[in-house]
Amino acid sequence: MASFIGRRRFLATLGASAVAWPLAARAQQPERMRRVGVLLAPLESDADAQRIRMSALRDGLEKLGWNDGRNVRIDIRWGGGDPERLRAYAVELVGSSPDVIVAAATPALEPLKQATQTIPIVFAQVSDPVRAGFVASLARPGGNITGFALYEDAIVVKWLELLKQLAPSINRVGALYDPNDAVNRRQLQEINS
Predict the structure, then answer these.
(1) Burial of 112 (0-12, 13-18, 19+ CB in 10 A)
(2) In terms of DSSP H, where are the helices of the chain?
(3) Domain boundaries, the chain
């Protein structure tokens, strides 16, 4: 009887060890450092971009348990409004093989879409992503790109209507735009139609 109880204890201990060993081994292994690439359109010296956009990203990640330098590394590139610089940084970020890329604003998303069809891209502040061809639809974006739309291009017509309500005597409106910016070109088309 004593040997039977001893054998049971031995098997129970062995079984518990077999279950606990992988858990203990996993706990001793360092957590893989995740990598997040970030491509922003403005200059790095833009205080609002630093304070609002990057703080919001870091705060959001921290609330989810991701701390920069501890279990995630955030690689940030600032385009400074220069399309060539944004393209170069998009290629550089994709080449570093991050787990995900965050694109802030339409000019940052355009070169990222061209640079990768496999790395997940999450965008914010992108104008009319469906019409721009970044996603198939807001409900089902498809591909490797998803995010939060800023507005649809057709809203510029509403802006003009609101302006006319506020100042009914206005007869002419001027529009300043960058002809190299696809969003600006689409918005101007909306105004002219």
Answers:
(1) buried
(2) 2-28, 47-48, 55-63, 83-95, 106-115, 155-166, 182-192
(3) 1-30, 34-151, 155-192
Per-residue pLDDT of the chain (193 residues; tens, 9 = 90+): 555 454 445 444 444 444 444 444 445 556 789 999 999 988 888 888 777 788 888 999 999 999 999 999 999 999 988 999 999 999 999 999 999 999 988 999 999 999 999 999 999 988 889 888 999 988 899 999 999 887 777 778 888 888 889 999 988 888 787 887 777 788 888 777 7
Q: Please check whether the domain covering 34-151 is classified as CATH 1.20.1440.130.
A: no
Residue 14, both tokens: 């062995």
Report residue 46 as tokens: 């833009």
* CA 151 vs CA 89, 141, 174: distances in Å: 25, 16, 21
Cα–Cα distance measured from residue 48 to residue 136, given in angstroms and rounded to the nearest whole number? 31
Task: Name the region of 179 (left: φ>0; alpha: ψ -120 to 50; beta: rest).
Answer: alpha
Report CA dihedral (151, 154, 157, 161) to the nearest 10 degrees: -60
Q: In Å, what is the CA distance from 152 to each residue of 123, 148, 163, 190, 193?
A: 15, 11, 18, 10, 15
